[in-house]
Amino acid sequence: MSNDELIRLTARAAVAMLREGEVSPLELIDAAAERIEAVDGIVNAMPTLCLERARDQAIRLEAGMGLPIEPGPGWLAGLPVAIKELENVSGVRTTYASPIFKDNVPERSDLLVERLEENGGIPIGMSNTPEFGAGANTFNEVHGETRNPWNTALNAGGSSGGSAAALATGQVWLATGSDLGGSLRTPASFCSVVGFRPSPGRVARGPTELPFNPLPIHGPMARNVGDVALMLDAMAGWQVEDPISLPSPGTPFQSAADWREPPRRVAFSEDLGISPVDPEVRRLCREAARKLEAAGAVVEDACPDFDGVFEAFKVLRAADFATTMRPLYEQHKNLLKPDIIWNIERGFELSAEDVGRALLRQGKLFADMIEFFGEYDVLIAPAACTLPLPIEIRWPRELEGVRWDNYVEWLRIVSAITMSTCPVIALPAAFSADGRPVGIQMVAPPRADAALLSAAAAFEEIVGVAGLTPIDPRG
Asked: Which domain does 178 fall in, by range?
């Protein structure tokens, strides 16, 4: 099989071939390296590679070193993967996209990376991200801008923009992402791939200074739902260093995706009642949601009460920034981008009462979501309020007559879902008249990760726009 054919395989097909010995990890590393060489100069998704480390790991794997006695459903068997450059990979330059850490080489990998390697995943490089993941457009002073493969004059979204663009151009079969204010979902929507924000604890985080914080989440990204489920099986599981981590489920997530159980009662909202949304995005997402009616679903306009939720999110986000980034602010303020300085200083201004009110609003939202999902199986909304934007627009200043004065405001439609702690997946839904991708986010009840993957796989099959990648980048 040629390298061009290999990079076009789904992740599950590639893993099946690895397990059967029909292709070797080294062959897949070479295929990925060739593809990166061919296209990454255009999109800048994978600025740091660790191919020799990957080849050494592949040789050890093929020699039987580190093989599990009984490989489980998450066994990747030597599949190359991309790691978002907010996650440490031992011995590999990991900058967090910040000039402060431009020469950082960690000695230990993050828990997520360790778990993937235990399950036969082979990191081949770091995917680009904005500085410390702050922002929904991937650019930084260390590695530069990541461009959208569908139109390289546009941005790829963020903060997992490098992972999304690498997947969309066939550079890797699977990639890690993370999500606080939509960092998995926005780039998935902008690049027409799949990004899954699982329930808190489903994928262990850390080591981290705030291990009990349920808002920042690691999750899988891929070109289709089945591949996302495969990667989630490889990522999930209890780890002692993460106090909220959950055990692996008895039934693999891949099985849930294979069931393709369409939701019976679907709630749809164009804007969650809190955000302006581009008119074409509204129309295309509504049309995509309505396609579930062909599978027997009842689709209704409905939404929980999100009033005040985004304001509470901004408080908790700022408190997080002020708590964890104070040392960097005090020692390296001149090297931080203005948006991060603004967010840290916003946190310094908060009172205990501000934080308490935000936590109370989050608690009320969680109770409302439980009640809401007593009537509906899933909630569908746009995964981004705009179409992909020109690369030079760091964040939109105005939409539908609403003006924004900071880089967080336009992320209301994803940040509000973060506050619910419900699992949510971003899926390709349509393309605009000028060919820009549009995605939806599908939300399920708390801890219903498996049911969400099943419903998402059914949606993907019905809508029929998944699997259009990998593509050659388009000017």
From this structure: 3-303+375-463
275: annotated active-site residue: no
Q: What is the CATH number of the domain that holds 279?
A: 3.90.1300.10
183 tagged catalytic: yes
Note the pLDDT tens digit of each residue in 260-277: 999 999 999 999 999 999
Which of 98, 160, 183, 199 does the annotation list as catalytic? 183
pLDDT digits (tens, 9 = 90+) for 131-159: 999 999 999 999 999 999 999 999 999 99
Task: Supply the pTM of this predicted model.
Answer: 0.97
| Residue 159 a catalytic site member | yes
Catalytic-role residue among 84, 178, 189, 314: 84
What is the 3-state secondary structure of the chain? Answer: CCHHHHHCCCHHHHHHHHHHCCCCHHHHHHHHHHHHHHHHHHHCCCCEECHHHHHHHHHHHHCCCCCCCCCCCCCCCCEEEEEECCCCCCCCCCCCCCHHHCCCCCCCCCHHHHHHHHCCEEEEEEECCCHHHCCCCCEECCCEECEECCEEEEECCCCCHHHHHHHHCCCCCEEEEEECCCCCHHHHHHHCCEEEECCCCCECCCCCCCCCCCCCEEEEEECCHHHHHHHHHHHECCCCCCCCCCCCCCCCHHHHHHHCCCCCEEEECCCCCCCCCCHHHHHHHHHHHHHHHHHCCEEEECCCCCCCHHHHHHHHHHHHHHHHHHHHHHHHHHHCCHHHHHHHHHHHCCCHHHHHHHHHHHHHHHHHHHHHCCCCCEEEEECCCCCCCECCCCCCCEECCEECCCCCHHHHHHHHHHHHCCCEEEEEEEECCCCCEEEEEEECCCCCHHHHHHHHHHHHHHHCCCCCCCCCCCC
